[in-house]
Amino acid sequence: MQTKLTKEIVRSAIKILKQQDTFTSIEKIWNITKGSKQIIAQLRNEIENEIEIEDEIEIIEDETIRSANIQRNTHETQIDIKINLDGDGKSNFDIGIPFLEHMLEQVAKHGIIDLDIKAKGDLHIDGHHTVEDIGITLGKAFQQALGDKKGICRYGHAYVPLDESLSRVVLDFSGRPGLEFHADFPRAAIGNFETDLFHEFFQGFANHALVTLHIDNLRGQNSHHIAESIFKAFGRAIRMAIDLEPRILNSIPSTKGSL
Asked: Is the pLDDT of residue 61 over 70?
């Protein structure tokens, strides 16, 4: 049966063109049109000439924005997080913990996610409540932004080196929260940031994003390098998992039919 130019193909093409480099875009658009030169030509004309499709594109873009704004307010912290999963890596932080801001910047940049976090916490005590609650709220934001998870790749993994350090992150937006965190830091603190708080951050994220998360530092001697390679790998693994697969945009990536 010949493929027809449908709203779904237009939707897929717009997402591909926004998210991918030129070569990958051509390859994926070829796949979703099943190699039909006629459909590719029609699609090109629709987009290039903007005939009777400008409003449609705006509707499609509005329907497909994957974003969330989550607040968490307790006696210990007040957290406000905005994310756009289909952003371009912009970030803005007002957390009061400079090293955590530096790490979250890596997630935004390498995950190609727009991330805005404002936090006020009982830092006069220590950073524990603030770090944990940011992880919790960020997890909730991902859970909301992903919605029913139709079309996502679901699984992600990344190996990232930073000088002598090498870290691996593997994750699954499975709906089943779980964390395996294996990293030995030579120092108890990086600057004023206590390294045992990394576990608290990722535990909060995993529990509330409903993600299975495996983090391993395979080697490393410098605590800063270990932490940064972990967060960069975390960002890259997230990007892989939340990317959309054009062939299954209306399908949940599970044989159970739900995640």
From this structure: no
81's tokens: 């997080």
Residue with tokens 């995640």: 259
Rounded (10°) angle between helices 7-19 and 37-49: 70
Q: What is the 3-state secondary structure (H, E, C) of 23-92?
A: HHHHHHHHHHCCCCHHHHHHHHHHHHHCCCCHHHHHHHHHHHCCEEEEEEECCCEEEEEEEECCCCCCEE
Name the least confident of 106-115, 172-181, 245-254: 245-254
Instruction: Report the predicted TM-score, pTM, of the whole model to 2 decimal places.
Output: 0.78
CATH superfamily, domain 67-242, is Imidazole glycerol phosphate dehydratase; domain 1 (3.30.230.40)
- Banded pLDDT at 178 (limits 50, 70, 90): very high
How far is Cα 43 from Cα 181, in angstroms, rounded to an integer? 46
Q: Is the dihedral of CA 46, 48, 52, 54 positive or negative?
A: positive
Q: Where are the domains of the chain?
A: 7-64, 67-242
DSSP 246: G
End-to-end CA distance of the chain: 32
Which DSSP helix (H) or strand (E) runs through 172? strand 165-172
Q: For residue 62, what are the contacts with CB-CB under 8 A and spacing of at least 6? A: none
Are 43 and 5 in contact by the 8 Å Cβ rule? The answer is: yes
Burial category of 33 from C-beta neighbours within 10 Å (exposed 0-12, middle 13-18, buried 19 and up): buried
